[in-house]
Amino acid sequence: MKFGLNAKKLLGAVAVSALMLGAPIATNPFTAQARAEVPLQGLPNVADLAEKLLPAVVEISVESKVNDGASADTPKIPDDSPFKDFFDQFLKKKQQEGQGGDNKPGDQGGGDNGAPSPDDRVVNSMGSGFIVDATGLIVTNNHVVEGASSISVHMQDGTIMKAELVGRDPKTDLAVIRVKPEKTLPTVSFGDSDKTRIGEWALAIGNPFGLGGSVSLGIISARNRDINSGPYDDYFQTDAAINKGNSGGPLFNMSGEVVGINSAIFSPSGGSVGIGFSIPSNTAKNVVNQLVKFGETRRGWLGVKIQTVTPDIAESMGLTKPHGALVADVTKGSPSEKAGLLAGDVIIQFGGRAIVDSKELPRVVAETEVGKEVDVKIVRASKEMDVKVTLGRLEDGEKLVAQVEAKPAPTVAPTTVTVLGMTVSSINDELRAKFKIDEKINGALVTETATSGAAVDKGVAAGDVILEAGGKPVTSSADVSAAIDAATKDGKASVLLLMAKGGKSSETRFIALKLNK
User: Fold this and answer.
1) Is 481 labeled as catalytic in the residue annotation?
2) Is 173 among the residues known to form the active site?
3) Which residue positions in the chain have pLDDT lower than 50?
């Protein structure tokens, strides 16, 4: 034991001597390399930046006539919170300030006698926004101003102005409002969100819990987040503190450019837990320009229903890897039908831009000019080919889809087969009525599934309809059997089926079922 202790002392003395003499000491080479490549950085001082940006960020007070009294951005403080009385008094004052006009504090409108009616209650809520044009254009969230009967804007210098709605877009949760100022307003500008990197500093300014003019600092935590809020989800994630009332406020980079519009938070408690979501500025710019120019959006429309290319689908289609967007259905009378696109095609490039996965395609199409002819590269039957598509307008396409008339299905003899854990029958009038199959759906009906097997593993259930099998249309159960036999004979590991979930034409998808060996 003494020897060990003396040895340690000796080594310590050598180390100290080496330090005093400047001699090199052995270190972890990986740690040393990491330190050399990544210089230490301190927290940024954002005082000057915040002072410059604050005047262009506004508080937005909204009056809405609602039935349930709920509001997306009305702060709700827990009853047991020690700050409840403070927030209740503060919010009441802010809401009264936002009423404007001749209304007295507490006035609720309503009938001719001034009394509020149950169906005409006025609820006050708050959000944030930022000025993008010195003459009074302000960007915010759609959910901040949706259903508003009155909108007021509070400037940092205490000025309060009434605002009018220019246009809004529920699909991206963006809106533009306008005020009529007596003087030129301070503004901020959009930056290029595509250049924003994970780990970069981000500055959020807004009106959390009605406090107004609040600044918080964090980083860009992630990109391309899909929070299932709309068809074009592509959010930044940030840990800069974002709370109720921050909605519609800007997320700045360290150059003072708006790279995101704060829109949502993940929060079990209702407050910030470090997971906030912002709409990238490059998504917002196009929408904002259209709302200002037209008062509405004018998005490109292709007219296809798409799904993700999974590894097993890629294998069954002869693709070298899962990529692109798989066309599950082509809308009648759409640009895609006119261009010759078919269900089962895989779109791998649109307008020269590679489509890595299915989420990209709707955003790229929507951002493309209506009426533009676009080159589209597809994979069909394991071969690449190019088609030209002249885009329509999404808003017109949605009306067309709603007006499509159902076509009666032909009478089919009810033959039944059992394959891959499914009992499949040709469709007749009795089965169509029993399973509530859409009139325009033709194919082979799944009447029963086994408790285990390829079909149930892929979520196939009774009432689903097989529209295509092995790339060929299905009109009877015999077609399904033939496709499976052909795939087995060709040595394929799976067979590709186009299904209508629950017999609904609006819910088509491709699945690849493993073949029995």
Assistant:
1) no
2) yes
3) 1-27, 29-30, 69-72, 77-78, 80-82, 98-116, 405-413
